[in-house]
Input
Amino acid sequence: MNAFIDFIMGPMVWVAFLIFILGLIFKMVLIIKDINARESYVYSYLTWKHSLRSIFAWMTPFLPQSTKQSPVFYSISYIFHLLLFIVPIFLMSHIVLINEAFQVSWVALDDGLADILTVIVILALVFFAIRRHMVPEVKYLTSYKDYLLLIIVALPFITGFLAYHQFFFYKAMVIAHVISGEIMLILIPFSRFSHMIVAPLTRAYMGSEFGNVRHAKDW
Amino acid sequence: MANEIETKDEPTIVKEKNTDKAVEAGLARLTPQRIKSTINQVLQKETGPRFKAYVETCMHCGLCAEACLYFLSNDRDPAYSPAGKVKQTIWEMLEKKGEVSTDFLRRAVHIAQTECNVCKRCSMYCPFGIDVAYLMLMVRRICHKLEITPLYIQDTVNSHSATMNQMWVKEDEWIDTLQWQEEDAREEFENLRIPLDKMGADVMYSVIAPEPKFQAGLLYQAATIMHAAGVNWTMPSSPGWDNSNMAMFTGDNEISGRIARAFYETAARLKVKRIVMGECGHAFRSTYDVGNRWIGWAMPPFEVVHALEFYHELLTSGRITIAEKFKKTVTLHDPCNVSRGRGLHDMAREVTNMMCESFIEMTPNREHNFCCGAGGGVINCGPPYKGERMINNKVKAEQLKATGAEVLIAPCHNCHSGLEDIVHHYDLNMEVKFLGDLIYETMEKKIYKPGD
Amino acid sequence: MEENKSFDWSTDLKEVSVREWEDRFVWVEEPYVSPDGETIASIVNIEEGVFTVCENGETWDKEYDKAWNLRPLPDGKFAACVSSDEEWTLSISGNEWENWFDFIWNLQVNKDGSSIGLAVQKDMEYGMAVNDKPWDKMYDNINEMVLSNTGISAAVVQVLPMAQADIEIFKQGIFSCAVNGKPIEKKFLNIWDISFDSTDKNVAYGVRLDRVNYSIAVNDAVWDKKFQSVWKPVFLSGENSVVAPVKEGGKWVLYKDGQPFWKNQYNQIWKIAISQKSGNIAAIASDKFGKWTIAENDMVWNMTADQMISEFVYSKDGSTLVAVLKDKGFWTLAVNQKKWNLAADKVFNPCVSSDGKIVSVVIEKQGQYFLAVNNIVIPNGYDFMATPVISPDNTKILQKAVKDGVYQRLILSMDKIL
Ligand code: HEM
Ligand code: HEM
Ligand code: SF4
Ligand code: SF4
Ligand code: SF4
Output
């Protein structure tokens, strides 16, 4: 048992991060290779200017018309995505672990605040799930896989939260937390979470088609 | 929150779905083997990373729904939402690896050809910029290869392939019509000409086939505007005069490219500097954005100027002057193919304001306009689908009504016809006009002389 | 260019004043100039609904209700499509054909001028007429008319009636290629781009076999292979062999007699030119999306144009290939891989000496016409210019130009230009 714990807390963390990062790089390389081989015409239209213009427009809260029309959803989504990165990166317990391994550290979130943020992330995911169930046009598109994705993101937050508060089975919780965190990281490049790198590409292409060819905005 | 999380019963599709004899005859000929191999050939061989990104990245968030006139007009029925249409077509084809039934295909062709205007509004509402129109065109491509494209639009493609125009206009009919309009217009301007095949003219003027077929008066108007503005222009007597392209809307890319080639080769043969086209949105899209690409022109080899941009130029340069502004209240429909498709919406407003006394905005507008519901080849699928088309664009009717304007300007042929149908169906009591109609009505009928 | 020998190469300047035409007539249409440069002509309007042609100030004897499609003929005369009492015929310097039609168009003249062809419509039936002789058989519709060098006419004709929007009959094929009015048996969904061989005995054309399959037909035989698309087939010089650009597996390749010919695949192979002399085959092609170039015997030129290569011609001896192209918004020429440094708004048809040493072309820049010779633009601007002629000994150029209402036939000496 201890060997197992050592493994998932040790080498497996490495493996998960490597798969996460290399997987994304690998995916990016594959996409670019595929574009060169099959759709190289896109380069005739892509421009940095229009790509970035579109990406930044869509990163600006409430600039795109779509965000104005669904303000609640977009607000929650923006917050969710921000916290998805901020919470784990600036979490004291995470920084401590990293510090032990690499002797580096950075500012940490106050634990109480981190706790609240964690709850916000979990609530955001609950909101997404309810929305999936309640809003007809979303429900129509939803299959069990979409809920699964939500659960995969939710688990590290839920288990981390439970472990932190040491409500029950602390040890088991930490193990569950680490495993779920690793699963999520590993899955990012190979699931629809890969939108993390594909989104900027599709946005850049649409932004360029609109900006460069159509002389129109795409937001 | 309220309008977002709004409980609704599971949607049911009650509306009658029409079909036509070309679709049915085509479906009857299909074998499972042909269906499977065709679908897989198109989806595997003719797509690339773009397609892959669009199907693999879609987070099923439903945000695109808000964009689509079909969704909004059908009481927010999700089956009409952009991603909903992808689900009913592409996703299922992929999931079943091409092994789909003819009933599935009947629905698929109906969705792709008559329930989407490929207007790309949804790409502006999807946070990833997923191009649902592209995916619908891919479905149309499959239907084209399976030969289940709706009858009337297929006939226009057949006409394109044989005559290089959309309406089986014979070569002599075309020239004869121009000469006849030229003669008529001489009642107004004594020396007016429609110069045919004038090598080295500055402008080649091109139109869509319905003009010589049904609306020859528009050729007359264009000729008077050109003449009064003192433009050095010409029209081709040979095929290549029609700038429309229905093949682009049935997925017949080979014919679509051939049409674009004939068009630009005609301009090259006449050694013109640029091409001006009548008020047509999809023709602009074909020549400016789509047909050219199949040939290998990243951008069109000639400058193509949509009528509304050209009018803007004539009015701002003083080549055409307005005698008396138009009095009635007008509103403007932004044709997607020249607003969202070319960013000409502000020019359209300037032109309108130069000619009309009272202009009322319709909302949403500019890039965010709603399509007329006729575009993308939908109206060209013909009478069997007209009833549905009216229901499918209720939002446009509401939008029009809210303006309270007496006259509706639609600087696009398709929009014009589509909106006329809507105006009648919903009893809106509006007059639908082209910009050219208004210029013709309000301009000073004198010939421009440089330095005036 | 042997026929040029008889031109007057010794008189430096001949002038015709065209300014006063404007006063004599209600309006004067765009001018055309005879190949030898001796005559300038325009369709002119005399009064409401009365037209004729004015050649060097002399009007034709006849007047017509309508006239269009004025063309110079190799012998120095002019032809135009004319109409009286709602009927149409061809008039050559006022002499009409005997046959009158309900409509005529697509005036074509062969190289030596011995044959003049037209597309004709009478009683809603369609065909062609060559030298006043209409086809024996007429059809429901006609497209893609061509006239060969020896005066053979061919076109795509509709051989079966089709009711409105009848896509089932269309699917069976309603078009055939008719040569001198006689249809070749086979019917197709579509036929395009008819080519003759050098003897005019054989024709080749692109066909569509069904919704998605295309091929090439030579006379009544279709190549075995089917393609995703095809462009115009061309006969190799002095052979029965046919080459054609075809699309296969998403790429364009050059095929010969139904077999792959060139090794390389292209994004586009647009059209083919063949040097009769050297047998070289050139193609306007695209190697990289959005960039045009020329492939000669499957070798790509070291030159690209980002907008269009519209035309290209070999010199008679095959040594020189001249292409008209548009790059970065302006038109120019490329001669044997080298782009000229013109930046013209328009470039007209180039004239190439038989040995390929001289290339001359009319260009337009900011509304003025100029003559360019071997990459040198002669600075005099004109209001109009017709295609120049190079003397058989390469020492002179015949320039045909209009300035300030005067037509000038000017003999330029090559020494002075270069
Ligand atoms: C992959 C290896 C990971 C390791 C080794 C790890 C380790 C830890 C540890 C030791 C704790 C502290 C538990 C306690 O306070 O006793 C913790 C908490 C937490 N972790 Fe992780 N974690 C990992 C991945 C992740 C990921 C991927 C996420 C989220 C995306 C995440 C989110 C959290 C959260 C939200 C908390 C609780 C914070 C709170 O409620 O205050 N962790 N983690
Ligand atoms: C910086 C990179 C990322 C960007 C730009 C991004 C962007 C988006 C966008 C545009 C959406 C669509 C709708 C919405 O706005 O919510 C979305 C949805 C979503 N994203 Fe991301 N994302 C990123 C990273 C991630 C990561 C790393 C994850 C999880 C591991 C993730 C999980 C999700 C989930 C679960 C949804 C769906 C929400 C729902 O069910 O409606 N995202 N993301
Ligand atoms: S392209 Fe237009 S019509 Fe089609 S799904 Fe998108 S918004 Fe609707
Ligand atoms: S908005 Fe985009 S990601 Fe969301 S469902 Fe529609 S297409 Fe998919
Ligand atoms: S018809 Fe008009 S509104 Fe409709 S798609 Fe075309 S341009 Fe758009």
Summary: The pocket of iron/sulfur cluster (ligand 3) is lined by residues B 67-68, 70, 82, 85, 116-122, 132-133, 371 (CB under 6 Å). Residues 161-314 of chain B form one domain. Chain B touches chain A through 55 residues (CB under 8 Å).
